[in-house]
Design brief:
The structure is a homodimer. Chain A is mostly helical. Chain A contains six helices and no strands. The first copy, chain A, starts with a helix and ends with a helix. At the A-B interface, helix 2, helix 3, helix 5 and helix 6 of A face helix 2, helix 3, helix 5 and helix 6 of B. Chains A, B: Homodimer.
Amino acid sequence: MRQVFQQSLSELQERLVGIAELVETSITEATQAFATSDAELAESVIERTEEVEALALELDELAINILLRESPVASDLRLVVSSLRMSSSLERMADLAQHIAQLARYRYPESAIPQGLRKIFSKMGAIDVEMASAVVTLLREQEPETVNVIRDLDDGLDKRHAKVFEKVLSDKLSANPLGVVDATLASRYHERFGDHAVSVAKQMQYFFSGELA
Amino acid sequence: MRQVFQQSLSELQERLVGIAELVETSITEATQAFATSDAELAESVIERTEEVEALALELDELAINILLRESPVASDLRLVVSSLRMSSSLERMADLAQHIAQLARYRYPESAIPQGLRKIFSKMGAIDVEMASAVVTLLREQEPETVNVIRDLDDGLDKRHAKVFEKVLSDKLSANPLGVVDATLASRYHERFGDHAVSVAKQMQYFFSGELA
């Protein structure tokens, strides 16, 4: 019985890692599609979103079944509780990658990135990809230090988010309302992606320490 | 023992209702502060956000304690699991109300709403307030029909969200990049507020039916 229980918990962890890996692929492709106006790549991100949603649902079912059958305690209970919440965050991260990909597709064959903002969006995309990769590592290796790596990356993202608005409001962009809308939304999507990575990190922090935050 | 358990579940429900009521107050005040450029009212919304956060944390602690001590099953387990997720949604709704209030405060004494968009934002705000009120009713009365009320309201919100972009891109707004940024963000905040109300509705749907979605 105990062995079956440990197997269920391992499966829960493996599934979390699996979903996080799909999120990493999605944000990598979305960032590239956005930078290079690649409509085909954007489509691949959009298609992956439903897969992530279905896997998150299966993960929730597994977590609830563990609660029902095994009545876990201590760190086992914390893993199950945090899984239920991380699945939502991972799903949202896939959604946000999709939103970035959709911006690229809507504007195709034009670029969704206004002139003068390419460099900063390329940096925001790179940070998001790094955060997604750190989330995979955190879920797989369960090393508490990775939590801080994710928080530090998020600080860099927030700085760029503020800078996008400065640029949008100061530049010759003013002449192009579509560019202003796209830049505002894209920057917000990147920033929220980072926030959800931090949510996952907080849930793992809770798993490690037992302290809710 | 059974009696203590039922008391804990009632307390969980009451606390959910309490948090939802604070969210309703916040979105009501945020909408008014945004419409009338009332910096003082905006401040009251911003201050309430921390209170909601603290209450959501306490709710999570209670839910986890119930899982640990009572090993609930069937609809009792579903209420506890859905509470853990609804607390996140309610917290995000308070955050989004705060973001709307912050837009009003940043632009004070100017209006954050560009000319020509006052009517549509007033409607979006009214729908958000109605959704928050329906969430309170859903959590208090636990009537399955309220789920559909919330979904229908969200459809109206999504239509207006699309319309804001049409207007932003077609109007004389083009001359004012700050107005374009504000309108884009405000519309997105209103739309996301509605999405989180739908998330709460979905969680209650799961509580009623046992079907995850």
